[in-house]
Every structure is written in structure tokens, then in C-alpha cells.
């Protein structure tokens, strides 16, 4: 039966691949200016205000995840930031020359990209990958989540309309037909030249196991530390903004906050002023039962707003008007689900004696889930940011910012705009950067002869010889 399914999936995917390769060959000779027009076309397809709103409304209607206003912001802001990053970036022909070293770098397409995308961002993430793929003169075939298929279809209709205005092949950007299945997604990954996967860890593992070169991302379960030097009001505002944005659909949304004892009272007061409601032990038990009815996160409550979750859990009072819900937590691991990713405006609050203890708590959380992604720090001490970067298993340390907005690039930090964040070997990923257009390029290097410079072995080994002798 499995062989039959594989054959059926291959028969569905193969024509898409044939058309994609034909379209990619048609633009292989494009110069940088023509290529950048393709990028602009795909960007305007999602940024045009009317289409942006239509995509946001369709995304919420189709998936039940997040909210329209924040998705409009995300669609626009992430695409605008990506355009900023791509402006003047060389991705065609000679992109770098180093005459001292005799090296020239030439950008080449990777070919056909399989873009695996999640239901949490069914427009923004496909658009980001499409734009990056086109920047490298590649064709791209999107494998959307089943819930996000209709949104992705609408996006591709908009993209095709813009490509038509340029006279560019529509088959540069395609998607799997409905229903999207594991078999068709796997057939696409096997047949493509590169896989870029965002979403469930099952999809990421499948991408790495496909036999095709792949970039996949790790699990999110972000923790933020608030130390005794923090501006508690500012920290609470940032955390609340991040925790509530799009009902916490982002993998970069804080799931835990670790507060050092000297500022605990002030920070809890500040979080309450931002709309956070701390649950009592009975309410906590009810919320846990509602969020994890069978030991697994309830899909019906994923990325819903806090009042909806509160009603489903049988909570009353202040919880029904909360911006986000908070629970006290002290332990980590599978038996303590509040220590993991919740994909909802629910925040676990940990108590730390001091900064060193806070680091230990975060390390224990990430030993359970979230290693490699990132950590937040609210502090006036840059030395502590360096310490976290030296010791925690994270690819990013986000200092004094709204985490879910900052991690994927922001106009007030230097990270590149992306909706796919590599988590390094800690997160079982092949990269630890934010995914950018350079991940969609092959680079050919020309090496010319230069004047020979041969080092002296004694100079290179001097420190070793001084330590142990010859």
C-alpha cells in the first residue's frame, strides 16, 4: 500500500517539478535588475493593503489561529523588512571579489526549492520563502499545511498576477494541490534541489531525512530572564506585547519568564498592569486540563485569545478579561507541561534567587524543550548578555526587546528579517542563522594564483612548544 501511495504522490508532484525546472531555466539568464523586479512583484503581492487584509482574514478563517490585525502587521512588516535586507544585495553573477586573495564569488541558482510552511503563518512564511527563492533566480513549490492551503492559494494567485505584469513565468511559483498529504510533501522534498522547512518537528525531521539538502528549524520554547537591573515597566510592556501578538502563534513568543527575587514584586505588578492575570492553584489545574486534555496540546485552543481559553477552562473573574494568563511554575519536563511550548497567550512564571540561578532554570527548561532557539534578557548589564551567549544553548540573545518581534529581525536591531530561525546543533539543525537569501544560492569561487607565502612552523607552534616543549 505504501508503494502505491508513493507512486500516486510522485505522479502528482512530477508535473509540478517539470514546469518549475522549465520556468527556472527561463530566468537563469536574468540580470540583477530583472531578478530584483521578480522580488518586488512577489513582495507587492502580499504588501498591497487590500490583498494583505484579504490574506489575513482568510488565514484566520481557515486556520482559526491568531487574529486579523496582527497578521496584517506581520504580513506587511516582515515583507517590508525583507525588502530592506535585499535592497542592493548581489545575488546574480559576480557578488564579491578579493584581489588580494585572488578570489571571485559568483552566485548561481540552487534550482527548485521545496518550501514547507506552517499553519501559524500561512501567508507571511510562504511569501518570505518565495521572495528569497526568487532573489536567487530559483523556482519554488510550496507545501502548505492543510489548514493553510486556501490562504496559500490566494497568495499564489496574487503572486501570479504580479509576475504576469512582468511577463515572467507563473510556474516559477507553484504549490501542492489539495489535499496536501505526507506522501505528496515527501515526494516534493525528494524531487526538489533544496528543502526549506518551517513548522512541526515531524516536518523538519522528514526534510532532513528526504535525501535532499535541507534547512530546517528547531522547536520554540522561549524563556526570558528579568534581572535586578531591569526596568520592570518596560520589560513587562515588551513581554506582554510579544506574548499576546497574534495570539502567540510565533515560535519566538515567550513561554516562560524567569524573574530574580529582588524585582519579583515589581515585575509581577508591572505584568498585571499590562493585562496579565496570575491564576490560583485551582485555576491552574483547570487550565492545564483544558490545554492538555490527553497529554497533548489541544488544537482547539492553540493560538486563541486569553478570554477564549479562560472560558474553555471554566475560569471566571479577571481571567475572562485577560490579555494573557500566567501560572506559577518551578519544575520542568514532560510531566510539567507549562514548562514547554504552549502556542497560546499563557506564560509560566519562574522564581530565581539571582542571575546565576535564572541561567540554571533556563538551561533546565531548554534541556526539556527549545534548545538552540533564543533567550530573552531584560537587564542593564551587557556583560550578562555575553554570559548567556557563552553558556546557554541558544543561537540568539535578545536584549530589552519584544522577543517575538525582534528574533526574526526588526527595524531596531541588526538581525536579518526572516520567519525561519535556525537553532544549530542544539536544535538538531544544520544552521544557526536566520534564514536569508544566501541560503538559496550556490556560490562558485574562482581561485587565481597569488604570491606564495609559506609560514614557518616554529612560529605557528610557538605557544605549544613554550607550554610543553618539543
In short:
This protein has two domains: 2-216 and 436-446, Aldehyde Dehydrogenase, Chain A, domain 1 (3-Layer(aba) Sandwich); 222-415, Aldehyde Dehydrogenase, Chain A, domain 2 (3-Layer(aba) Sandwich). 43% of the residues lie in helices and 16% in strands. The chain contains 17 helices and 15 strands.
What is the assigned CATH homologous superfamily of the largest domain? Aldehyde Dehydrogenase, Chain A, domain 1
Supply the number of helical segments. Answer: 17
Cα-atom radius of gyration: 24 Å
Q: What topology, given as strand order, has the largest sheet?
A: 10-11-12-9-8-13-14
Count of the domains: 2
Give the tally of β-strands: 15
Give the overall shape: globular
Percent helix range? 40-55%
CATH architecture of the largest domain: 3-Layer(aba) Sandwich
Q: Averaged pLDDT, please?
A: 96
**Could you tell me how far the N terminus lies from the C terminus, measured between alpha carbons in angstroms?**
66 Å
Provide the β-strand percentage band: 15-25%
Largest sheet: 7 strands, parallel
Low-confidence region ranges: none
Category by helix and strand content: alpha/beta
Would you kindly provide a written description of the structure presented here, covering whatever features stand out?
The protein is of the alpha/beta class. The chain has two domains: 2-216 and 436-446, Aldehyde Dehydrogenase, Chain A, domain 1 (3-Layer(aba) Sandwich); 222-415, Aldehyde Dehydrogenase, Chain A, domain 2. It is built from 17 helices and 15 strands. It has helices at residues 2-27, 32-47, 49-63, 68-86, 124-135, 149-166, 182-191, 201-208, 232-244, 264-273, 281-291, 306-312, 355-368, 382-391, 403-406, 457-460, 462-468; strands at residues 93-98, 103-109, 112-116, 139-143, 173-175, 194-197, 214-216, 222-226, 254-260, 276-278, 324-328, 346-352, 375-378, 397-399, 441-447. The strands form three sheets. A seven-stranded parallel sheet has the order 10-11-12-9-8-13-14, with helices on both faces. Strands 5-4-3-6-7 form a five-stranded parallel sheet, sandwiched between helices. The longest helix has 26 residues, at 2-27. The chain is globular and about 65 Å long. The mean pLDDT is 96.
Amino acid at each position: 500500500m505504501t508503494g502505491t501511495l508513493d507512486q500516486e504522490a510522485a505522479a502528482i508532484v512530477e508535473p509540478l517539478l517539470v514546469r518549475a525546472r522549465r520556468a527556472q531555466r527561463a530566468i537563469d539568464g536574468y540580470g540583477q535588475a530583472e531578478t530584483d523586479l521578480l522580488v518586488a512583484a512577489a513582495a507587492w503581492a502580499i504588501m498591497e493593503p487590500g490583498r494583505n487584509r484579504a490574506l489575513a482574514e482568510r488565514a484566520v478563517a481557515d486556520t482559526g489561529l491568531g487574529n486579523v490585525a496582527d497578521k496584517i502587521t506581520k504580513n506587511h512588516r516582515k515583507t517590508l523588512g525583507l525588502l530592506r535586507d535585499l535592497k542592493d544585495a548581489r545575488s546574480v553573477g559576480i557578488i564579491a571579489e578579493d584581489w588580494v586573495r585572488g578570489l571571485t564569488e559568483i552566485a548561481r541558482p540552487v534550482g527548485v526549492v521545496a518550501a514547507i510552511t506552517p499553519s501559524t503563518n500561512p501567508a507571511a512564511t510562504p511569501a518570505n520563502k518565495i521572495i528569497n527563492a526568487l532573489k536567487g533566480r530559483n523556482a519554488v513549490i510550496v507545501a502548505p499545511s492543510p489548514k493553510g492551503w486556501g490562504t496559500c492559494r490566494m497568495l499564489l494567485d496574487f503572486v501570479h498576477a504580479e509576475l504576469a505584469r512582468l511577463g515572467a513565468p507563473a510556474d516559477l511559483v507553484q504549490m501542492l494541490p489539495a489535499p496536501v498529504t505526507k506522501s505528496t510533501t515527501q515526494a516534493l522534498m525528494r524531487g526538489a534541489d533544496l528543502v526549506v522547512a518551517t513548522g512541526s518537528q515531524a516536518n523538519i525531521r522528514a526534510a532532513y531525512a528526504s535525501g535532499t539538502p535541507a534547512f530546517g528549524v528547531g522547536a520554540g520554547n522561549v524563556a526570558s530572564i528579568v534581572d535586578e537591573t531591569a526596568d520592570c515597566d518596560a520589560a513587562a510592556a515588551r513581554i506582554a506585547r510579544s506574548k499576546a501578538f497574534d495570539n502567540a502563534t510565533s515560535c519566538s513568543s515567550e513561554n516562560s519568564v524567569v524573574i530574580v527575587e529582588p524585582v519579583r514584586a515589581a515585575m509581577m505588578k508591572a505584568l498585571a498592569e499590562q493585562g496579565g492575570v496570575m491564576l490560583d492553584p485551582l485555576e491552574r489545574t483547570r487550565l492545564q486540563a483544558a490545554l492538555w486534555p490527553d497529554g497533548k496540546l489541544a488544537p482547539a485552543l492553540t493560538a486563541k485569545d486569553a478570554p477564549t481559553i479562560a472560558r474553555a477552562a471554566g475560569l471566571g473573574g479577571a481571567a475572562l478579561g485577560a490579555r494573557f494568563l500566567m501560572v506559577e511554575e518551578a519544575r520542568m519536563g514532560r510531566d510539567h507541561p507549562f514548562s514547554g511550548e504552549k502556542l497560546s497567550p499563557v506564560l509560566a512564571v519562574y522564581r530565581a534567587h539571582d542571575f546565576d540561578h535564572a541561567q540554571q532554570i533556563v538551561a533546565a527548561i531548554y534541556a526539556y524543550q527549545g534548545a538552540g532557539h533564543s533567550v530573552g534578557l531584560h537587564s542593564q548589564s551587557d556583560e550578562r548578555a555575553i554570559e548567556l551567549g557563552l553558556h546557554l544553548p541558544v543561537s540568539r540573545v535578545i536584549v530589552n526587546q519584544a522577543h517575538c518581534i525582534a528574533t526574526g529581525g526588526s527595524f531596531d536591531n541588526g538581525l536579518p528579517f526572516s520567519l525561519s530561525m535556525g537553532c544549530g546543533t542544539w536544535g538538531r539543525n544544520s544552521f544557526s542563522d536566520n534564514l536569508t537569501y544566501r541560503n538559496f544560492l550556490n556560490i562558485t569561487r574562482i581561485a587565481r594564483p597569488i604570491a606564495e607565502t609559506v609560514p614557518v612552523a616554529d612560529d605557528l607552534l610557538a605557544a605549544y612548544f613554550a607550554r610543553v616543549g618539543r
